[in-house]
Structures are given as C-alpha cells and as structure tokens.
Amino acid sequence: MPASTVDIKIYLEKIKNLIESKLQRYLPSDDIEPKILHEAMRYSVMAGGKRLRPILAYSAFEYCGGNVDGDDLAIHYAMAALEMVHTYSLIHDDLPCMDDDDLRRGIPTCHKKYGLAAAVLAGDALHDVAFNLLASTGSTKVVVELAQALGTAGMIGGQIADVEAEGKDVTKEDVINIHTRKTGALITASVRIGAILGNASDEQLTNLTKYGEKIGLAFQIIDDILDIEGDTGTIGKPVGSDVELGKATYPKAVGIEQSKIDAQKLITEAVALVDKFDDNVLIELAKYIGQRNN
Description:
Elements (H helix, E strand, L loop, with lengths): L7 H19 L8 H11 L6 H12 L10 H20 L9 E2 L2 E2 L1 H5 L1 H20 L4 H11 L4 H11 L6 H26 L4 H28 L2 H4 L5 H5 L4 H5 L1 H19 L6 H11 L3
Antiparallel strand pairs: 1-2
Helix pairs in contact: 1-3, 1-4, 2-6, 3-4, 3-9, 4-6, 4-9, 7-9, 8-9, 9-10, 10-14, 14-15
C-alpha cells in the first residue's frame, strides 16, 4: 500500500471542531434551570479531550459511504451522544467511591468543583440527553448498540469488575476481560454506530467490529502504560494512581515491555482489517492510538 497522504493531525482537529460545535448546540444551556446541573454538565463535556469516540464514529460513517454534507445529521446526533456518555462515565469514574480523582483533563473533576450530588446527577443527566439524541437518529439499531455497550455486559459490568479486582493478583485474561468491557465496549460501539448509520455492508460491519475491539483494547493497554511512564501535565490527570489503588492493569499482569509489544500487535492487526484503500483515515487513527502520549 502506498504511503498515506492523510494528515491525521489536521483531520483530528477538523472533526474535533465539528463535534464541539454540535456539543455546544445540543447540551442544555446553563441559563435555564436547573442552572447548576446544566453548568456542571457543560463544564465536564466542554473541558476538552481527544473526542476519539465521536471521531471514530464519523470516520467509520465516511468509510462506509455515509453522506457527511448537511447540518444536524443523524451522525452528528450520534457523535454528540457518544461524547456525552463517555463524559458521564468519566464523571462517575472520578467519584470517591470509584477512583477518587481530583483532576480530569487538567482541571478539577466535576465532584471537586460542584460537589458529589451535582456530579452524580450531571452524569445521569448526560446519559439521558445522549439517548434522546440517539433516538433522534431514527435508528433503533444504534440505540440498542449503545445501550448494550454501556450495560452490565459492557462498560458498567467492566467498571464493577475493575473495582472488585483492586488489590488482587490478576492474570492477563482477567485484565483483558475488564478492559474489553470497561473501555473497549464503547470504542467498538462508536465504530459500529458510525458504520450502521453509514449503511455498512455485512463484511464492512464484521471487519469494523473486529477493528474496534482491537483498537479499544490497545487504547486501554496504552492508558495503563501512560499511568506508569506518562506525565501528569501531558495526560491531564495524576500518574501512578493505578498502582496506588492496586488496579488490575495490563503491565501488572504481563510487565511493561510485553504490554508495549501487545499493544502494537493489536494496532497492526486493526490496520490489516481496513487496509483496502489508499488514504484510509481509519488506518491513521489506529496508528495515532498506538503512538499517543495522552
């Protein structure tokens, strides 16, 4: 395959600007009641971040031939919904009963700024707004897709498994089980939702599902590595917290060097699943995930 001419940095910035304009539009205004709750929701969602999940959805939508021309498209609703549920999960993940983090994206976490009650309710409210937006796509398939990714077989199930594994010896299989649910399920769903809205063929959806699963696991393995080798100023949250809490991490199970090898193997396998066209953004996104430092 010839060298790609896609400038992934320019592409990421372009789609990030698109999703942030949609988030500004679809989030409840903090000028209307309950103002404190709407302010907390906007504070957390608009705090920045990579916007990776909506970007993956958009890229899969494009890959499958979806029409990106127009305003307030189904894919736009889906992108905003994905970022909102991701943020809701982060708000709850940061709570004292979970990871008890003080910083997220370089600023105080939602509960540190607004208090525990407002943080819990802001997360709940983002979940509600997200599903209203997803319903606006007109596709029951994507509503079911996200519900399953967030449920007890997906992110929420992964979260409780993560909590239960704290301080215990874990195997590689234990960690993969947690990571594929807690992190990977929503990443895979993001890819699948974009593909479904783009009218993917059966073959495309099968390959994109496997692609999502591989980059989702690689993403969390790299997150585990960054918690050991990263920099607080770069990643926007304290490093070393996983070790301090005795979290079930990939390096804990197999070591830091094997973690790096396994993450890159997953990225290579993901690229092979979509390596059919020149200038394929999904290939560059996989490589970006493999090389990220935050």
